[in-house]
Amino acid sequence: MSRGQALAAYVGLRAAEVWVLAYVPGFPNYGEGREYLDGAVIVDLLLIYGLYRRSRLAWDASVVVTSLGLLMYLYVMLPADELQAKYDVVIVLAALQLALLFNRALRSTQPASERLGTAP
């Protein structure tokens, strides 16, 4: 998988998760009237731009945010007596995002000097 394909797949999965959280009825959501949706989209766009630019900080932040989200959804879902489709979909989307982030195509393994073109 090329870097462009991996980034496009990550963006698609991230957009699908945001859409499910915002527009599928039930909890979890972005608050009454989707009041936190704008902030979530802005953070996602900044992280995606950082991934596009091969920023190690953006990759680390994406891994942390996705991992915390996945753990939070699992923590809420596991003790529940019944399965809820919205949680299941969000958990699968977050797990796929995390797997894509650890794909060699998205993970920046070069030193910063080589990424920025300042190596002698």
State which percent range the strand residues make up.
under 5%
Helix share bin: 55-70%
From the helix content, strand content and strand pairing, which structural class follows?
Answer: mainly alpha
How far is the first residue's CA from the last residue's CA? 30 Å
Tell me about the largest β-sheet: none
How many helices? The count is 5
Ranges where pLDDT stays below 50 over 5 or more residues in a row are none
Structure, explained:
The protein is mainly alpha-helical. It has one domain (3-104). The chain is 68% helix and 0% strand. The chain has helices at 3-23, 37-52, 56-77, 85-101, 112-116. The longest helix is centred in the middle third of the chain and has 22 residues, at 56-77. The chain is globular and about 55 Å long.
